[in-house]
Specification:
mainly alpha; single chain; elongated; 94 residues
Amino acid sequence: MSPKDKLKEGDFLTLLEKFTDEELEEELERRKSPPPVEELVNTSNIRDQAAQYLDDVHRYGHPQKDAEHFIFEAVMTAFYGNDVWSWLNKHNKG
């Protein structure tokens, strides 16, 4: 049995009472909003993917299949971190 399972409903209320309404509302809003942009963006993977795209067009006359998707993934991960995919999977309705 996990520690969470051992907690009773009253225990949760006791924990929640330690926070102000404002703090709880801020936490709810944080959970609804997209992940923050990473402060230190590592663009090396974006650069590598873009270079590969150009190299493939030069060598073969067309980019690798799904190259745009790989570049998109590199951009999103660089700016928002790996957690962006969990957030998108949870909130994307399309």
